[in-house]
Amino acid sequence: MTPSLQIGSATVIALTDGEGPFFAERSEAFPNATAEQWDAADRFDPGSVTGDGRWWLQFRAFAIRDDTGITVVDAGIGPADGPAASWAPVPGRLPAELAAAGIDPADVDTVVLTHLHTDHVGWAVVADGPERRPFFANARYVLQRREVDAVEELNPQLREILIEPLREAGRLAAVDGEHALTRRSRVVPTPGHTPGHQSVLVESGGGLVAVTGDVLVHAVQLLHPEVAYELESDRRTARESREALLRRVAEAGGSIATPHLTEPFAAAGRRGPGGSAVPPGGGSS
Ligand SMILES: [Zn+2]
């Protein structure tokens, strides 16, 4: 069964495109994480470490369904010939996951791309003979304008195979800052991982879910938001965004939906001693 979280009249559905090992050692990916922090992270998320100590990660998108329509957040690692093929476990299975959740790509109203990394845009635009076309044929694709403007520095290939085809199809919606998607959901800027990174907040029936994107990429950054990820384009800003978003969700008693942790949903929950998050059901830290 497809994992999902009900929040008021909205449903947040986890769609796993694939899973596999990270290409670098964990100590290179998170150079300032301590042994104690790794112990805590591995207790919280035992599925994220292999027997030989490598980072094993999920590649996930989410769908948000409410009475006003369907939003998809991120587009996974993509097909065998997608832009993530050089490092991610392609082909992804997002089309089958959507079908299992009863979602026809043509019925998706909005696609939010949290940022322009290849493991988050894989199925956004696909090859169709010599052409490229939006996989979600009738959706508008929401990106922060700052992110679109940074495409050259992030990945010049994505300008050609993603941004230009979306623009030509009239599907690209470049927004500035907070932007309402539906009555119950909006994007909020969470910069740092990339210059124009954004997350999605869903609020319904008094509850809150944050679909984080890569504000945090590993449980070590959930338990210890001060831990930097090597590929963050601005570590200080990334940390500020992470701390602010997790605080906001914790204060609301809400949940986070993350692309790379083993479990798709987690409580940002109460804070334990030292300010670290306490996993659902309590923790030892
Ligand atoms: Zn990612």
SSE layout and pairing:
Elements: E1 4-7, E2 10-21, H1 26-29, H2 35-44, E3 56-66, E4 69-73, H3 94-100, E5 110-112, E6 125-128, E7 131-134, E8 140-144, H4 145-149, H5 151-154, H6 156-168, E9 172-175, E10 179-180, E11 185-189, E12 198-204, E13 207-211, H7 219-223, H8 235-251, E14 255-257, E15 265-267
Parallel strand pairs: 4-5, 5-8, 8-9, 13-14
Antiparallel strand pairs: 1-2, 2-3, 3-4, 6-7, 10-11, 11-12, 12-13, 14-15
The structure holds zinc ion.
Give structural notes.
This protein has one domain: Metallo-beta-lactamase, Chain A, CATH 3.60.15. The protein contains 8 helices and 15 strands. It has helices at 26-29, 35-44, 94-100, 145-149, 151-154, 156-168, 219-223, 235-251; strands at 4-7, 10-21, 56-66, 69-73, 110-112, 125-128, 131-134, 140-144, 172-175, 179-180, 185-189, 198-204, 207-211, 255-257, 265-267. A 7-stranded mixed β-sheet has the order 1-2-3-4-5-8-9. A 6-stranded mixed β-sheet has the order 10-11-12-13-14-15, with helices on one face. Helix 3 (94-100) links the parallel strand 4 and strand 5 (110-112). The structure holds zinc ion (ZN).
